Each structure stands twice: as structure tokens, then as C-alpha cells.
Amino acid sequence: MIRINENFLKLQASYLFSTIAKRVNDFQSQNPETEIIKLGIGDATRALPAACIAALHSSVDEMAADTSFRGYGPEQGYPFLREKIAQHDFQARNVDIAADEIFISDGAKCDTGNFQEILSTDISFAVPDPVYPVYVDTNVMAGRTGEFENGRYQNITYLECTKENNFIPDLPRSPVDLIYLCFPNNPTGATISKADLAKWVDYARKNKSLILFDAAYEAFIQDEELPHSIYEIPGAKEVAVEFRSFSKTAGFTGTRCAFTVVPKACKAYDSKGAQQSLHALWNRRHSTKFNGVSYPVQRAAEAVYSEAGKKQVAEIIAYYMKNAARIRQEMDLLGLDCVGGRNSPYIWIDAKGDSWDLFDNLLNNAGVVCTPGAGFGTCGNQYIRLSAFNSFENVEKAMNRISRALKK
Ligand code: MLT
After folding, report:
1. Do 155 and 29 lie in a common domain?
2. Cα–Cα 20 to 30 A to 7, which of 13, 70, 267, 395?
3. CA distance 140 to 148
């Protein structure tokens, strides 16, 4: 008899953003005349940088001739892209990451979700609350948790991120083996200083733990003091894996390209306590289960690092940050406390009530989609997240509509 992985039955009915999409679609079909403005999922709306488009065109042309055609590429990614990343994203910041420590993939969602697969199923782990649901759900699927009760899974250490701790989690009270951190944070938009991040690196070194550091939003950092990479902290290479993406940086949400950094020095252990190489294990997993990102897309990602590409990316980020500032301004006018939006495309707003109620209110009365904080964990019950990914005109319109709806 074929049987299922019953861990999947512990999951909530559907993935957060699928639930929201369904509610929005239902609303739209009942209200076809409403022009809905989406400030929910963080999906890019600006066109790809011109440098990326040019690279796509020329690499597609290469595929058109037998002499320049490319078949299977290296699963880890082409050296031309891995080298550019190592040089521009790390070495330029005095961070010693080598090209062969970088694994190109089709998304940080997949990588943050898949990485746990090379770790033992009986390790303990901690996630911030609120949290990007992928970290939790993939561990549920792997069987590392108990049942879902009162909004939380058993066997997860939840690190509460609240106004009181400036949305930066405190170190766990009892040791955990695996820790997920995300800065600039999704969903709160909060950032972490080098000094605070160093506390986590020290913690991981003392406890032989591993940090999975999601830096998908680093390109939005404006404050020069903030770390873009966990490897800016001395000793982090031994205890941290970092995830990055071109999705939010350069509008690749539909084009798909990301990467994961697994330093060769990064330590993990087998059941006898002997040290094992995470780099070797991830390489083994990646080359078995992943065929690589397409050649034209890797060429497009490479173009992000050209002089023109850098300038165009900076313009796109500045555009979204202007939206973020406008959202913050309106929330201030409405007297709603918020965090984020200064070094991140997300604004986390104290809804002063149930987050799904405010979601419904904004959808029904303003035609604006937000993300209800409850979908990110119990600490989000009273918050909503607005995303800066849209046109400035739509953000302006959405702010006016929200203002009218909330003043009623
Ligand atoms: C979000 O809105 O949280 C992100 O767009 C989701 C993702 O990147 O998968």
C-alpha cells in the first residue's frame, strides 16, 4: 500500500501567499469593477535592468548557432557568474568568499527550504516569530516538529520579535542546533547591527550550531553601518550559510536566479561527533537534484555586475525605496506604528487589532492587498505587512484609499 509522508498533514491548509491569492481572486470575481492594488507578496514590478535584457538577447542568439550553443551547464553555476558574485558581493566588502563556495540556483525560497535536507532530522531548531513561512513549513515536512497547536508547532523554538526587542530576536534560552535569521527582515523590515549579529555568530560557535542567514533583501540597505553579509562578522564562515537572490535586487522574480554561499570552512558533525563538510554535502545534493539555471538567465544575472547593470539596479532599488518612504509617511499620518521601509522594501505596521480583519477591511474598502501578519506567526497577529513593490502611482493611490478607509 502506498503511504504518504504524514508530516504533510500537520501543515496548515495552504501556503500563506496561495491563501491570500485565493481570497483576492474571489474578491475580484465578485467585484470585477474594483481596480485592486497589490502591496502583498513582494513581487517585482519594474522591468529588468536594460543590461540584463541585452545579456539575455545576446545569450539567446548564442543558443541559435551550433558553434556557440550550450547544453547542460555545471549544476553549481557557470564560473563567469560565480566569480562575479565572489568579487562584487563579497571580496569588494573585504569578505573572503571564493567562487567555488557559491552555488547558483533558481531561488532563495527553494534554497532556504531545501538546505535542511542535508541536516539530521533530530536536531533542534529556532525560527524568529514572525517568520518567512518557508523555513517552518519545510521543517514540518521533514518531520522535525510536532503538531500545530494554538498557532505554533511543537518542537520549534520560537524567537519572538516584538517592539520591545526592536524586532531583533534574543538568543535562545536553551541551546539549539539550527537557527534561521533573515536581515533585512522579511516580514518586519527590521535590520541588525554588526554587534548584534556578532552575538549570534558567537552563540553558534559556542554551541556548535549552524545559522541559515537569509540576506535576500541586502540590496535595500541604505545605512552604511549595517552588514550586507553575515560573513562581515569574524568567524561566521565556520557557522553560517548565506542565501541571496536576484529576485528583489534586480527584478528576477519571474526570471529566476539566486545563490547560496556554503563556505568550505563551515562545520557540521555526524552522530559520532566527527566534523563533516557542509560544502561537500550541499554540492552532492545540488548536483543530484538540480540541473542548474539556464545559460541565458545566468548571463543576465552576470550583467547585474556590469557598470551599467549596477547603475540600473541602484535606480530600481531607489524607486522602490521611494515607495517605502511614501508608505511610512502615510502610516505616520494615520498614527500607526511601523518598522521597516528604511533599509528594506517591507513595512510592518501595528494594526491595533486582528491582522486578517484589517486585511479584509483594506481589500473590501480600499481595494488594497496587504499581507496579514498572522500568516507569519503569532507575533504577527496584530500586524500587517505592506510591500513597496509597485509603481509609485499605485502606491500613492493605495495610500489615499487606505487613509480614507481607515478614517471612516
Ligand atoms: C514575500 O512576499 O514574502 C516574498 O515575496 C516571498 C518570496 O520571496 O518567496
Report:
1. no
2. 267
3. 10
Which of the four pLDDT bands, split at 50, 70 and 90, describes residue 14?
confident
**CA dist., res. 396 & res. 39, Å (int):** 12
Section 245-258 average pLDDT: 97
Task: Indicate the residue among 307, 337, 367 that finishes a domain.
Answer: 307
Comparing CA positions, the residue from 128, 116, 125, 107 lying closest to residue 181 is 128
Kindly state whether residues 302 and 327 are assigned to the same domain.
Answer: no
Q: Beta-carbon neighbour count of residue 59 at 10 Å?
A: 20
| Containing structural domain, residue 165 | 52-307
pLDDT band (50, 70, 90) for residue 10: very high
Are the CB atoms for 221 and 249 separated by under 8 Å? no
Average pLDDT of the chain, as a whole number: 97
Residue 192 Cα, ligand 1 centroid: separation in angstroms? 20
Determine, yes or no, domain membership for 375. Answer: yes
pLDDT at 13 over 80: no
Domain boundary among 307, 340, 369: 307
Q: Are residues 129 and 12 in the same domain?
A: no
Same domain, 116 and 175: yes
d(CA 166, CA 193): 12
Give the CATH number for residue 256. 3.40.640.10
204/221 same-domain check: yes
CATH of the domain at 34: 3.90.1150.10
Q: Which of 15, 17, 220 is the pocket-test mutation for ligand 1 (most atoms within 8 Å of CB)?
A: 17
Query: Ligand 1 test: best mutation among 16, 131, 132, most atoms within 8 Å of CB?
Result: 132
Residue 262 cell numbers, joined = 556554503
What total number of domains does the chain contain?
A: 2
Tell me the per-residue pLDDT of 301-354, one tens digit each, with 9 for 90 and over.
Answer: 999 999 999 999 999 999 999 999 999 999 999 999 999 999 999 999 999 999
Using CA positions, which residue lies closest to atom 5 of ligand 1?
42
Whether residues 278 and 374 share a domain: the answer is no
Q: Closest residue (by CA) to atom 4 of ligand 1? A: 42
Instruction: Tell me, rounded to whole angstroms, the distance of Cα 191 from its chain centroid.
Output: 13
Whether 140 has a pLDDT exceeding 80, the answer reads: yes
pLDDT confidence band for 384 (50 / 70 / 90): very high
Ligand 1, from 18, 20, 41: best to mutate by most atoms within 8 Å of Cβ? 41
For the stretch 75-98, pLDDT in tens is 999 999 999 999 999 999 999 999
For ligand 1, atom 9, the nearest C-alpha belongs to: 109
- Write out residues with Cβ below 6 Å of ligand 1: 41-43, 109, 186
